[in-house]
Amino acid sequence: MKKKNVLSNAGTFLLFGGPSIFAFAAVVVIPFLVGLYLTFTNWDVRTGNSDLIGLANYYEVFSDKVFLGQLWFTLKYVFFTVFIANGAAFFIALALTSGAKGEQWLRTGFFTPNLIGGIVLGYLWQTLFSQVLPYLGNKYGWSLFSTSWLTDTITAFWALVIATAWQLIGYLMIIYIAGFSGVPGDVLEAASIDGANRSAVIRKIILPLSIPATVICIFISISRSFLTYDINLALTKGGPFNSTELATYHIVQKAFLSNQYGIGQAEAVVLFAVVAIIALTQSYLLKKLEVES
Amino acid sequence: MNKSKGLKMMVCLVLLLSLLAACSKGNDASSNPPAAPTNNQGGEPAQQTEKEVKLTFFNTSAEVNEVFEKLFQTYHELHPNVTVELIPTPIGGAQIEKFQSLLASGNPATIANLDAGTILQYKDSFLDLESEKAKYEELTKPGAVDGALLDGKFLGIPWTAQGYGLLYNKRAVEEAIGGAFDPASIKTRNDLEALFEKIEAAGKAPVMIHGADWSLGSHYLGLAYSLQSANVDDNRKFMESLQTGEVKLIDNPQFNGLLDTFDLLKKYNARKGDPLVADYNKDSADFAKGDAAFYFMGDWTWAIVGPLEGRDQEFGVIPVPISNNPDDYGNSQIAYSEPKLFAIDNAGSTPEQQEAAKAFIEWMVTSDQGQEAIISQMGLSMPYKDVKVKGSNIISEAVSQYVDQGKVMNIGVINYLPQDYWAKTGAAMQKYLVDKVDRKGLADEVQEYWEYQGKK
Fold this sequence. Notes:
The structure holds 2 protein chains of 2 kinds. Chain A is mainly α. Chain A has helices spanning 2-38, 56-62, 65-95, 103-111, 118-140, 153-181, 185-193, 198-209, 211-226, 230-235, 247-257, 261-287.
């Protein structure tokens, strides 16, 4: 009797869970494992060679100063993107939950950039940075904009950060709004009766009570900005002189332009490890801050 | 509470994994089934009733996909037993990746229109066209077949030719110097400098440098490798000794001569204020309207210049002078190449398909319809003797004059260079353009790239 139960349970599970497990395996697990295997080979589609070469690709990755430099560049980029996007999204969400008129429209407006694909968005900002702003800059004598931001290593970095953050803000804002709406009204009311001012309410009540939303937002923004490729491609193409190549961009160049698949794939695995460690550590640490009202 | 915490963690993990797998998938062509529409490779016996032949055509000249499609249609009307199907690629997109995945999945296109360098890399997959060579030597201009040889083998049939150098806007130059301009008068770097001075004195920007890596790394710096000798094999030997470190670029007279001229172009560059903006459409359009008198570019820019409204009418081209001795190689020769070749697959095609492909390619380059399509509709020039159609591309007409006089530089050595050389050395040139590195720094960086290639 018990055995039968187990069987029918398994059958029910497969009926409902099977299709998604199959899809997950086909597009995530198997490619990931095959990719992992490729890092131990010198596979080359031109010759068809595929010999096991052990850890040679990883050795190559860690002795490649260019890649390590770009990994560091990516870390800086992620730090600023996450910081700016979350900061801006938090305050926009705060402003848009205060009950002002036209709030719904503004929310839609801020969310729209997230609906535009990265490539389109990249070209949009490229036109802005390399044509519109220099045009205005020269007309009105703003020295900040007299040349294109995309042709200088430092400003190109900020251009990349701004464009990515701009896209992320709308998405994060929605999550923050959802988080804020979970803050109980009675606590806020009690605070206002006690004479707490706005900043105290934000610091002492709203922020601690919306930690779950913050954890999700930071997690999403970290993993998304680590894996930025399309904006990088459309906005700067890694230029000027490869100084704004993010790790993902470098990986694609390595595999498909330089034809070093094994090394490119090994770099992808290293990137995976870095992202996994950082993202999981931050969500573990931030979760400790969670409180219940 | 605890349970939901675990659940959240799980969701996070799954999210993370799926995001990353999406990333790793892109690097892994083998697990990516090709989405190309080539699903009937000999699978249906009904198609092989002796005469019915189906060809697929892989096209990397993506900007002219539609012209090719119309041409295939015309051929099908003339030869109802042959159907040609286009496998398009995106402009500037993942072209080679698509070619690789077709090949890796055992489903290659019968005919491929590829860069000569790509054909060389996959040379074992293509049909040796030795039997056709004599015929094409008859049909093409002198040197055209030689220029298309890859490792001494005739693997791809040339169908288009390009030349590049310093393009000039005739009106802009003549207004500035106040008289007729004879391009043959510029034989040396000093001649060019004197002309630039005059143009600048007249209040015009003398020259436009397009700051993109492909223009600087492949076209400009690439000249250094071809300038070593008129013989491609000697140039290849030079590249080998560069990779072993026997030759140092910084001591090479051609490299230094080329960069001395680059310093001159830099000094008179119309984009001096912000040299790396590199907006191809804008640079070409500004040149065509006379905002800059010269422009380092090739005849392909006609695709932008031709349809432009309010442009000037007359353009020409001169070689980039690299020294003050008029007799030095390169000072009177235009860089000229056959960038794309038609190659026939030998990895998964039947002999019938290959024969049909040969006949079809010959038709494309010799028939009126084919030439009409290539020359007038694509705006390209053809390295063939008997071309009945007159092109509208004024710049390639100017290049043809050099070709007819035999004043061309064979830049075939670039076909043997690794695929990423233009991006890597182009980045070094960009640094030099904005004075981020000096001559020594540039030479070191480029040298380092080549020596790394030698070690691979």
